[in-house]
């Protein structure tokens, strides 16, 4: 906000990020987003104490389904990209964010009611988190996989592979560091994601879409929706072309409801738990959406002497 | 008069195993009676003879078992890993010592050929305990952080197709990591688990560490719903797995599921046909096809379809179906009347939908549950026999022209447990294997298992891995 200027500033229309494009909600609906207030949306509009920030898209079930289609379409290319390439792109995201640091500091400060310095610490940590996961892309397979000493004339190798399309409910409180901390591990390993931004503080997430779009990340790898978490999450949890769901942003009641829906096609479910954003992220957010494939090969025999020469 | 090259009967001795007329529940280190009255009978699927009576455990019995396991957990988890390891090594050794007895028992109760229980099930059971025994004092080095903690009491539910092997897959990693268990064997095959209780006794395993509750799905439900368990490990149908996943929603109970499959066995035109045919037979007729990772969909390249099918039918005509205790038997009995009815119904659906049925010309014994090795041709991807898990000796044959088509058809399934690739070309193996959405891929072989190798599914075939370092995760608080 720059009311002190003589010049009238240009507002930004915040839009969704789906399939590499920036659509509005197909429903045409928006909801009011205000500064550091816990109230959002029409029902609680009059309770909000903060000042107006934007009219964010209020995504519909159809938006959620469109996002799944985009994520599925992107899965083959992204999961098939080399780990090195994925690492380069994740690192590029960090580079792009660094250049737009001031914008995100302002948005996070508004969204979470933080001082400039505290918001800056959040943004810096989020940038560093992209760097952390950028480095993981070509190491996780070596840490998790390997050759198994089979008792027989066989060679086999176990390797981690991405689960597929993962629905991610971003944490409600930490609008940016929390968001990055749940997206990066999912895509680092080759999954594609449909992300539901923090319901009350979706603007940093929607702006992240603009960064992703300019970081060589193929369209559809990350799709970002704003709106009511419960409304968007329900069709994602029940969607038969979604393979996993991270419930970080769900309260206990919603988490249970979504986990029940997710059982229909046996999605991998990462239950909500304490999210210590200051701690070493570890590997568990990556392993939650990795499969292990074991491929067996006969070793053959070189003749009765064990040698062909 | 026997024809030249016919086999004389060569039955394994039934006298190797002494089955009691009736069994209680194994709770807190001893066999106890149920608080209820209900009892079931387990029969030999090849003769329908009643082998023994056992308890239909009720919720109260399950509660007793969980409490015993909880009580035992404190000491068992505090035991130095090296000591836990020695108990498991003891168990592995005793299984090796008693393996012929257990093989005969398993064949009697399950109906599978003695050749399989003797040469596959039992060696793998002992190996699994031996493998995980060695992990018990090395968990700090397993990649799950320093001193990873056990979960507590594990509720484990296993199927009837590999009763003792599935028990080993469940109990060995659970105990190695310091958990205690309540295990429910399948209602048609409770005996080997009850014999395992005796092995625990011989090994001097502290009481309450392993508890065995028998019964049908109601017992399983009571176990899954019990608030005192920290973990559910289930192997069985996708339908039941789904119900368990719903049941555990919103709880802290950890879950691993090993469910159904509809494995594609892909034969390219450059494959060594004779070897591929052996692999196809092993893939779908091992254990009468009652294998979750069975290669139940044959995808054969069009140019070699005729050659493969001719050779396959010729081979199937030589399979010996009959007395499972006979050492020369290839195809044993179907596990239960219920399963036989399910297979029969699905095969009838296959015929009704227009697929072409061919069954091996073999005589079926007059008593017991039997189904001749069967294959379907003219199968499309929309046919029920190409989509549903039959869990029986029934192969659906589909064709393809290009590797891309083979991959697309193989992946066109709700399941993702296993797949096979037959080709002489190494780069094609790697390319195709990397595109298949399945947890286990066998190239130029099929149905190979090893305790060091993680096993488990993609998609609706379940989640979590059994075997190897990966198998520890299911029982650790990580």
- Taking all residues together, what is the mean pLDDT of chain B? 97
Q: What ranges of chain A have pLDDT less than 50 throughout 5 or more consecutive residues?
A: 37-46
- What kind of sheet is the major sheet of chain B? 7 strands, mixed
CATH class of chain A: Alpha Beta
Proportion in β-strands of chain B: 15-25%
Main-sheet strand order of chain B equals 12-13-14-11-10-16-17
Number of strands of chain A: 10
CATH topology of chain A: Aldehyde Dehydrogenase, Chain A, domain 1
Of all chain pairs, the largest interface belongs to: A-B, 35 and 43 residues
Note the overall shape of chain A.
Answer: globular
Q: Give me the Rg of chain A, rounded.
A: 21 Å
List how many beta strands of chain B DSSP finds.
19
Residues in helices of chain A, as a percent range: 25-40%
> How many individual helices of chain A?
10
Succession of helices and strands of chain A: EEHHHHHEEEHEHEHEHEHE
Derived structural class of chain B? alpha/beta
- CATH-level-4 superfamily name of chain A: Aldehyde Dehydrogenase, Chain A, domain 1
Keywords (chain B): Oxidoreductase
Protein name (chain B): Aldehyde dehydrogenase family protein
Organism (chain B): Streptomyces albipurpureus
Domain Aldehyde dehydrogenase (chain B): 31-477
